[in-house]
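Title: Prediction job returns without error message
Component: structure pipeline
Severity: low
Priority: P3
Assignee: unassigned

Description:
Job completed but the reporter wants confirmation the result is attached to the right record. Sequence as submitted:
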Amino acid sequence: MAKYRNDFKVEYRGEVTIIHFTAKVLDAITMENLYRNLLVLAKGLIIKKILLDFSEVDCFSSTALCNFVALNRFVESNKGKLVICSIHEDLMEPIRRMHLSKILTIEKILDDGLKAFDTNCS
């Protein structure tokens, strides 16, 4: 499992790339770092299935939400899929308010996130 700037670890399970956030707070710097790394991988078509694991995250910035949507659009435009899992219930409120749950695939636990790739994804 590769680790980046102590903010997230990367794990590979088959074709799925799992990003385990290790930072409690996802700020603009953390998200920009992640976004750049994932875009490089996605542009090279190395990864098409990305699972973001929020189980350790207590807070994230509005920039993070914008980056989730941008990353989701990019991955989908390359016939891939982005799934988000394990978001604490109190962090779901801004996602619901902005109606992002209609755009993003969000699952309650990691196993459900992995299962989400079994349907409607090439």
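Comment from assignee: result matches the submitted record. The domain at 2-109 is CATH 3.30.750.24 (Transcription Regulator spoIIAA).
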